[in-house]
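Continuing the series of single-chain predictions for the mutant panel. This is the parent chain; the variants come on the following pages.
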Amino acid sequence: MPRRPGLSVRLKLTLSYAGFLAVAGALLLAVVWGFLLRYVPDNPQGLLGISPNRYLLVRTFFPAAAVAMAFLLVFGLVGGWLLAGRMLAPLTRITDAARTAGNGSLSHRIRMEGRQDEFRELSDAFDSMLRQLESHVAEQQRFAANASHELRTPLAISRTLLDVARKDPTRDRDELIERLHTVNTRAIDLTEALLLLSRGDRGNVTRERVDLSLVAEEAAETLLPLAEQRRITLDVTGGAAVTGGSAELLLRMVTNLVQNAVVHNLPAGGTVTVHTEAHGDTSVLRVENTGRPLPPELVPTLTEPFQRGTERVRTDEHAGVGLGLAIVHSIVRAHGGTLDLLPRPAGGLLVTVRLHYAP
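Parent structure:
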């Protein structure tokens, strides 16, 4: 929004300093003048015939007072200008950093030296904001690039299948339709996952009373056929764990965790345990599964979008889109909770979700 030009802060401070000094000087001279007048007689002979009278004192004092006031005014303007410049120098650095950030350079930092004061606090807060903003922008750019790559793959496959069918009219149409259906389903799943992840990142979720134990039972019942197909034992234990949040998002969170635990498990004979409990005003959900040992350096990356460990990449019908735990992390964060991933020494993963509930 355009603004009309006005006086700079430095000039305003300079005028304020000079004005304050001039007023203080005038008051001091007035006090001195009033004090002297009390003891100077107003007669031609003066005091005892030897002291100056009031007329002579006025002629002597006023020129000196005028010179002193002029000196105070000039001193106040010059000193105020220099002092204001020195005091506002940190603000100038912060303004320059803000302009640099506004031009797209988020890597610049002020790093103001000196002892702690209001300007240093503002500088440190601005540097912290730039770090978070730079990290967020880099994460969004990386996410957009990965999402574009993931979406391009099914579209490229669909185009290849259609090109082959157009060049070879004798090709089995049923096989083509089935393969196109599979590829299209994967693209839809990826799009829905991206929308859900975006919704969780915004954090504007509805709040209602949700029992995680009932949500866990519903998710387990939905995924029981998948677990039986893979010969994996799926158990739900624990008691009521009431929290507040979106029932739809929390169901998706638990479903993703259980599906992830079933898919990334032993080839046969594995187990998945879902446990819920409450500790005061905190509801706890634990999903534990067997599986191959996970490298410790891999675990922190599992909640990043499109991040899959080489041992975790699947090539079957449940290959996923690399957003399962990223969506879980986003939903937990939107509900103000915490998500902990801990590799089991014998293999597999222990996932713990803690959600606070304030009735």
